Protein backbone atom coordinates (compact mmCIF):
# COMPACT_ATOMS: atom_id res chain seq x y z
CA UNK A 1 0.00 0.00 0.00
CA UNK A 2 1.36 3.39 -0.89
CA UNK A 3 0.50 7.03 -0.63
CA UNK A 4 1.75 8.94 -3.70
CA UNK A 5 5.31 7.84 -3.20
CA UNK A 6 7.73 9.16 -5.82
CA UNK A 7 10.35 6.85 -7.34
CA UNK A 8 13.30 9.10 -6.57
CA UNK A 9 14.26 11.28 -3.64
CA UNK A 10 16.89 13.73 -2.44
CA UNK A 11 19.60 12.53 -0.07
CA UNK A 12 22.51 14.26 1.68
CA UNK A 13 25.45 11.94 0.96
CA UNK A 14 28.81 12.32 2.71
CA UNK A 15 31.56 11.50 0.20
CA UNK A 16 34.54 12.22 2.41
CA UNK A 17 35.40 14.25 5.47
CA UNK A 18 33.51 17.58 5.44
CA UNK A 19 32.05 16.87 1.99
CA UNK A 20 28.28 16.34 1.87
CA UNK A 21 26.49 16.49 -1.49
CA UNK A 22 22.80 16.50 -2.31
CA UNK A 23 22.01 13.66 -4.70
CA UNK A 24 19.01 11.98 -6.27
CA UNK A 25 18.58 8.35 -5.23
CA UNK A 26 15.85 5.76 -5.77
CA UNK A 27 13.24 5.58 -3.01
CA UNK A 28 13.90 2.30 -1.13
CA UNK A 29 11.94 -0.84 -2.08
CA UNK A 30 10.15 -2.51 0.82
CA UNK A 31 10.32 -6.09 2.06
CA UNK A 32 7.07 -7.54 3.43
CA UNK A 33 7.82 -6.57 7.03
CA UNK A 34 9.14 -3.08 6.28
CA UNK A 35 7.68 0.41 6.51
CA UNK A 36 8.55 3.36 4.27
CA UNK A 37 8.77 6.56 6.32
CA UNK A 38 8.64 10.02 4.78
CA UNK A 39 11.28 11.67 6.96
CA UNK A 40 9.99 14.92 8.49
CA UNK A 41 12.69 15.70 11.11
CA UNK A 42 16.23 14.46 11.80
CA UNK A 43 18.35 15.61 14.74
CA UNK A 44 22.09 16.03 14.34
CA UNK A 45 23.91 13.93 16.92
CA UNK A 46 27.48 14.05 18.23
CA UNK A 47 28.20 10.79 16.42
CA UNK A 48 27.20 12.36 13.06
CA UNK A 49 29.71 15.13 13.75
CA UNK A 50 32.46 12.62 14.55
CA UNK A 51 31.96 10.81 11.24
CA UNK A 52 31.78 14.16 9.46
CA UNK A 53 35.09 15.44 10.86
CA UNK A 54 37.09 12.24 11.47
CA UNK A 55 35.48 9.66 9.17
CA UNK A 56 35.42 7.18 12.04
CA UNK A 57 34.35 6.37 15.59
CA UNK A 58 36.52 3.65 17.15
CA UNK A 59 36.56 0.71 14.74
CA UNK A 60 33.56 2.02 12.74
CA UNK A 61 35.14 3.61 9.70
CA UNK A 62 33.55 5.41 6.74
CA UNK A 63 34.91 3.55 3.71
CA UNK A 64 32.42 4.53 1.05
CA UNK A 65 29.94 7.40 0.70
CA UNK A 66 27.44 7.33 3.57
CA UNK A 67 24.23 9.09 4.55
CA UNK A 68 24.42 10.31 8.17
CA UNK A 69 21.60 11.00 10.65
CA UNK A 70 19.86 8.56 12.98
CA UNK A 71 17.46 10.59 15.16
CA UNK A 72 14.37 10.72 13.01
CA UNK A 73 10.61 10.80 12.79
CA UNK A 74 8.13 11.09 9.97
CA UNK A 75 4.95 9.88 8.30
CA UNK A 76 4.27 6.36 7.07
CA UNK A 77 4.22 6.56 3.26
CA UNK A 78 3.94 2.85 2.38
CA UNK A 79 3.88 -0.51 4.12
CA UNK A 80 4.98 -4.02 3.17
CA UNK A 81 2.46 -6.84 2.75
CA UNK A 82 2.87 -8.18 6.31
CA UNK A 83 2.95 -4.91 8.21
CA UNK A 84 0.25 -4.67 10.89
CA UNK A 85 1.73 -2.30 13.49
CA UNK A 86 1.20 0.93 11.55
CA UNK A 87 -0.77 2.15 8.54
CA UNK A 88 -0.15 4.66 5.77
CA UNK A 89 -0.51 8.20 7.10
CA UNK A 90 0.47 7.37 10.71
CA UNK A 91 2.94 9.73 12.36
CA UNK A 92 5.87 7.73 13.74
CA UNK A 93 9.17 7.86 15.59
CA UNK A 94 11.89 5.60 14.16
CA UNK A 95 14.15 3.62 16.47
CA UNK A 96 17.38 3.52 14.47
CA UNK A 97 18.85 0.08 15.24
CA UNK A 98 17.43 -3.06 13.59
CA UNK A 99 18.45 -6.18 15.48
CA UNK A 100 18.46 -9.88 14.53
CA UNK A 101 15.85 -10.90 17.09
CA UNK A 102 17.28 -14.39 17.56
CA UNK A 103 20.68 -14.08 19.31
CA UNK A 104 21.13 -14.40 23.09
CA UNK A 105 21.24 -10.64 23.61
CA UNK A 106 18.05 -10.14 21.63
CA UNK A 107 16.25 -12.96 23.45
CA UNK A 108 17.35 -11.56 26.82
CA UNK A 109 15.76 -8.23 25.93
CA UNK A 110 19.15 -6.54 25.79
CA UNK A 111 18.98 -6.13 22.04
CA UNK A 112 21.25 -3.07 22.11
CA UNK A 113 24.02 -5.67 22.55
CA UNK A 114 23.00 -7.65 19.44
CA UNK A 115 26.21 -8.29 17.47
CA UNK A 116 24.29 -8.11 14.18
CA UNK A 117 22.50 -4.81 14.78
CA UNK A 118 22.22 -2.54 11.76
CA UNK A 119 22.20 0.97 13.14
CA UNK A 120 21.39 3.97 10.97
CA UNK A 121 24.40 6.11 10.04
CA UNK A 122 26.88 3.62 11.50
CA UNK A 123 29.11 2.50 8.62
CA UNK A 124 28.27 0.82 6.32
CA UNK A 125 24.55 1.44 7.08
CA UNK A 126 23.02 4.59 5.58
CA UNK A 127 21.08 7.00 7.77
CA UNK A 128 18.21 9.46 7.72
CA UNK A 129 19.32 12.64 5.94
CA UNK A 130 17.01 11.56 3.10
CA UNK A 131 13.39 12.11 2.12
CA UNK A 132 12.34 8.46 2.57
CA UNK A 133 13.74 5.71 4.73
CA UNK A 134 12.71 2.09 5.18
CA UNK A 135 12.63 0.38 8.54
CA UNK A 136 11.48 -3.01 9.86
CA UNK A 137 8.05 -2.53 11.38
CA UNK A 138 9.00 -3.42 14.96
CA UNK A 139 11.26 -0.33 15.09
CA UNK A 140 8.56 2.09 13.99
CA UNK A 141 6.38 3.59 16.75
CA UNK A 142 3.21 5.58 16.31
CA UNK A 143 3.20 8.97 18.04
CA UNK A 144 0.19 11.05 19.13
CA UNK A 145 -0.79 14.21 17.25
CA UNK A 146 0.28 16.28 20.25
CA UNK A 147 3.91 15.28 19.72
CA UNK A 148 5.74 17.20 16.98
CA UNK A 149 8.10 15.41 14.60
CA UNK A 150 11.10 17.22 16.07
CA UNK A 151 10.14 16.10 19.57
CA UNK A 152 9.70 12.57 18.24
CA UNK A 153 13.23 12.74 16.80
CA UNK A 154 14.45 13.65 20.29
CA UNK A 155 13.12 10.32 21.62
CA UNK A 156 16.45 8.90 20.40
CA UNK A 157 18.77 10.87 22.71
CA UNK A 158 16.02 10.73 25.39
CA UNK A 159 16.21 6.93 25.17
CA UNK A 160 19.82 7.00 26.34
CA UNK A 161 18.71 8.78 29.52
CA UNK A 162 15.77 6.41 30.04
CA UNK A 163 18.15 3.47 29.65
CA UNK A 164 20.66 4.99 32.11
CA UNK A 165 17.81 5.50 34.61
CA UNK A 166 16.72 1.87 34.21
CA UNK A 167 20.25 0.45 34.43
CA UNK A 168 21.13 2.47 37.55
CA UNK A 169 17.67 1.77 39.06
CA UNK A 170 17.02 5.46 39.70
CA UNK A 171 14.01 5.66 42.05
CA UNK A 172 11.47 8.41 42.64
CA UNK A 173 12.77 10.71 45.38
CA UNK A 174 16.44 9.98 44.81
CA UNK A 175 19.18 12.52 44.12
CA UNK A 176 21.04 12.29 40.83
CA UNK A 177 24.09 14.16 39.50
CA UNK A 178 24.47 14.39 35.72
CA UNK A 179 27.81 15.51 34.31
CA UNK A 180 27.85 17.14 30.86
CA UNK A 181 24.91 19.04 29.37
CA UNK A 182 25.20 18.26 25.67
CA UNK A 183 21.96 17.02 24.06
CA UNK A 184 22.31 13.54 25.62
CA UNK A 185 22.94 15.06 29.05
CA UNK A 186 20.00 17.43 28.65
CA UNK A 187 17.65 14.63 27.65
CA UNK A 188 19.05 12.59 30.56
CA UNK A 189 17.88 15.40 32.85
CA UNK A 190 14.41 14.98 31.32
CA UNK A 191 14.61 11.22 31.95
CA UNK A 192 15.61 11.77 35.60
CA UNK A 193 12.69 14.16 36.00
CA UNK A 194 10.32 11.73 34.31
CA UNK A 195 11.16 8.94 36.75
CA UNK A 196 10.77 11.32 39.69
CA UNK A 197 14.26 12.18 40.94
CA UNK A 198 13.83 14.71 43.76
CA UNK A 199 17.02 16.65 43.05
CA UNK A 200 18.83 16.79 39.73
CA UNK A 201 22.29 18.34 39.98
CA UNK A 202 24.03 19.08 36.69
CA UNK A 203 27.46 20.28 35.57
CA UNK A 204 28.79 21.90 32.40
CA UNK A 205 30.96 24.82 31.25
CA UNK A 206 28.47 26.53 28.93
CA UNK A 207 25.91 28.91 30.46
CA UNK A 208 23.44 28.23 27.60
CA UNK A 209 23.48 24.52 28.38
CA UNK A 210 23.07 25.04 32.11
CA UNK A 211 20.06 27.29 31.44
CA UNK A 212 18.57 24.63 29.15
CA UNK A 213 19.16 22.04 31.88
CA UNK A 214 16.93 24.07 34.21
CA UNK A 215 14.21 24.01 31.54
CA UNK A 216 14.54 20.22 31.38
CA UNK A 217 14.17 19.89 35.16
CA UNK A 218 17.59 20.40 36.77
CA UNK A 219 17.23 21.66 40.34
CA UNK A 220 20.89 22.71 40.78
CA UNK A 221 23.36 23.79 38.10
CA UNK A 222 27.13 23.91 38.61
CA UNK A 223 29.37 25.74 36.18
CA UNK A 224 32.63 23.84 36.51
CA UNK A 225 34.56 26.82 35.09
CA UNK A 226 33.67 28.77 38.22
CA UNK A 227 32.71 26.29 40.91
CA UNK A 228 34.20 23.08 42.27
CA UNK A 229 31.62 20.36 41.58
CA UNK A 230 32.62 18.29 44.61
CA UNK A 231 32.25 21.22 47.03
CA UNK A 232 28.90 22.17 45.55
CA UNK A 233 27.49 18.63 45.55
CA UNK A 234 28.69 18.15 49.10
CA UNK A 235 26.88 21.35 50.15
CA UNK A 236 23.65 20.39 48.34
CA UNK A 237 23.59 16.87 49.82
CA UNK A 238 24.87 18.00 53.24
CA UNK A 239 27.99 15.95 52.90
CA UNK A 240 26.18 12.73 52.07
CA UNK A 241 26.67 12.48 48.31
CA UNK A 242 24.21 11.61 45.54
CA UNK A 243 22.41 8.30 45.08
CA UNK A 244 23.18 8.08 41.40
CA UNK A 245 25.61 9.84 39.01
CA UNK A 246 25.71 9.73 35.20
CA UNK A 247 28.67 10.97 33.17
CA UNK A 248 27.46 11.88 29.68
CA UNK A 249 30.29 13.96 28.19
CA UNK A 250 33.13 11.44 27.96
CA UNK A 251 35.25 13.80 30.03
CA UNK A 252 37.80 12.05 32.31
CA UNK A 253 37.67 14.73 35.04
CA UNK A 254 33.86 14.66 34.96
CA UNK A 255 33.88 10.86 35.32
CA UNK A 256 36.16 11.17 38.34
CA UNK A 257 33.89 13.76 39.94
CA UNK A 258 30.80 11.69 39.09
CA UNK A 259 32.37 8.80 41.01
CA UNK A 260 33.43 10.86 44.00
CA UNK A 261 30.04 12.61 44.19
CA UNK A 262 28.36 9.31 45.17
CA UNK A 263 27.06 8.40 48.60
CA UNK A 264 28.08 5.06 50.08
CA UNK A 265 26.37 2.36 48.03
CA UNK A 266 25.77 4.79 45.16
CA UNK A 267 25.48 3.88 41.46
CA UNK A 268 27.48 5.30 38.57
CA UNK A 269 26.64 5.15 34.86
CA UNK A 270 29.23 5.73 32.17
CA UNK A 271 27.27 7.17 29.25
CA UNK A 272 29.83 9.35 27.46
CA UNK A 273 32.76 7.75 25.67
CA UNK A 274 36.14 9.33 26.45
CA UNK A 275 38.77 9.69 23.73
CA UNK A 276 41.21 7.53 25.70
CA UNK A 277 40.67 3.92 26.76
CA UNK A 278 42.02 4.19 30.30
CA UNK A 279 41.16 6.74 32.97
CA UNK A 280 42.45 6.60 36.57
CA UNK A 281 39.60 5.90 39.02
CA UNK A 282 39.77 5.68 42.80
CA UNK A 283 39.54 1.90 43.28
CA UNK A 284 39.53 1.82 47.12
CA UNK A 285 36.64 4.32 47.02
CA UNK A 286 34.70 1.97 44.71
CA UNK A 287 35.39 -1.06 46.93
CA UNK A 288 34.95 0.63 50.33
CA UNK A 289 31.68 2.22 49.31
CA UNK A 290 30.30 -0.68 47.30
CA UNK A 291 29.78 1.51 44.28
CA UNK A 292 27.93 -0.11 41.36
CA UNK A 293 29.23 0.92 37.93
CA UNK A 294 27.11 0.52 34.80
CA UNK A 295 28.22 0.84 31.19
CA UNK A 296 25.58 2.34 28.93
CA UNK A 297 25.44 1.44 25.24
CA UNK A 298 22.56 3.05 23.39
CA UNK A 299 19.27 1.67 24.83
CA UNK A 300 16.67 -1.06 24.53
CA UNK A 301 12.89 -1.08 24.97
CA UNK A 302 12.77 2.67 25.59
CA UNK A 303 10.72 4.07 22.68
CA UNK A 304 7.20 3.43 24.04
CA UNK A 305 8.19 4.98 27.39
CA UNK A 306 9.96 7.88 25.71
CA UNK A 307 6.90 8.66 23.60
CA UNK A 308 4.62 8.48 26.65
CA UNK A 309 6.87 10.71 28.76
CA UNK A 310 7.27 13.41 26.11
CA UNK A 311 3.57 13.28 25.21
CA UNK A 312 2.64 13.72 28.87
CA UNK A 313 4.28 17.15 28.88
CA UNK A 314 6.64 16.24 31.73
CA UNK A 315 9.20 18.37 29.89
CA UNK A 316 9.02 20.54 26.78
CA UNK A 317 11.82 19.03 24.71
CA UNK A 318 11.13 21.43 21.81
CA UNK A 319 13.02 24.04 23.83
CA UNK A 320 16.26 22.21 22.98
CA UNK A 321 15.88 22.82 19.24
CA UNK A 322 17.91 25.95 18.52
CA UNK A 323 18.53 25.65 14.77
CA UNK A 324 16.50 24.33 11.82
CA UNK A 325 17.74 23.50 8.30
CA UNK A 326 16.45 22.11 5.00
CA UNK A 327 17.97 18.89 3.66
CA UNK A 328 19.81 20.92 0.98
CA UNK A 329 21.65 22.70 3.79
CA UNK A 330 22.68 19.61 5.78
CA UNK A 331 26.37 20.45 5.41
CA UNK A 332 25.81 23.99 6.66
CA UNK A 333 23.88 22.52 9.60
CA UNK A 334 26.83 20.24 10.43
CA UNK A 335 29.29 23.14 10.23
CA UNK A 336 27.09 25.21 12.49
CA UNK A 337 26.92 22.40 15.05
CA UNK A 338 30.72 22.14 14.97
CA UNK A 339 31.62 25.80 15.09
CA UNK A 340 28.98 27.28 17.38
CA UNK A 341 28.83 24.86 20.30
CA UNK A 342 28.18 27.73 22.70
CA UNK A 343 25.08 28.86 20.76
CA UNK A 344 23.51 25.56 19.64
CA UNK A 345 21.75 22.81 21.53
CA UNK A 346 19.92 20.52 19.10
CA UNK A 347 20.02 21.18 15.37
CA UNK A 348 17.25 19.61 13.29
CA UNK A 349 17.11 18.98 9.53
CA UNK A 350 13.73 18.81 7.74
CA UNK A 351 14.10 16.64 4.58
CA UNK A 352 10.59 17.25 3.27
CA UNK A 353 10.30 21.01 3.59
ZN1 LIG B 1 22.00 10.25 18.68
ZN1 LIG C 1 20.44 -10.21 17.95
UniProtKB/TrEMBL annotation:
The keyword Heme does not apply. It comes from the Bacteria. GO terms for molecular function: oxidoreductase activity, acting on the CH-OH group of donors, NAD or NADP as acceptor; zinc ion binding. CDD domains: sorbitol_DH. The keyword Zinc applies. Keywords: Metal-binding, NAD, Oxidoreductase, Zinc. Its cofactor is Zn(2+). SMART domains: PKS_ER. PANTHER family: SORBITOL DEHYDROGENASE. Belongs to the zinc-containing alcohol dehydrogenase family. This is Alcohol dehydrogenase. It comes from Priestia filamentosa.
Amino acid sequence: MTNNVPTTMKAAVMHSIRDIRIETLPVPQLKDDEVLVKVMAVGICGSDLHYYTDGRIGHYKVEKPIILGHECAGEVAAIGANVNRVKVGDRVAVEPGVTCGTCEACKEGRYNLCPDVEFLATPPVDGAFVQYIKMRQDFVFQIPDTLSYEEAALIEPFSVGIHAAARTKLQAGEIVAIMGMGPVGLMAVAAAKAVGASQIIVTDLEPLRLEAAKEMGATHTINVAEQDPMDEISKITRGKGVDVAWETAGNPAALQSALSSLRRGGRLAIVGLPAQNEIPLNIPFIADNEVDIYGIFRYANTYPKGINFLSSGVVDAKKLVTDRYRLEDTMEAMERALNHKNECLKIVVYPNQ
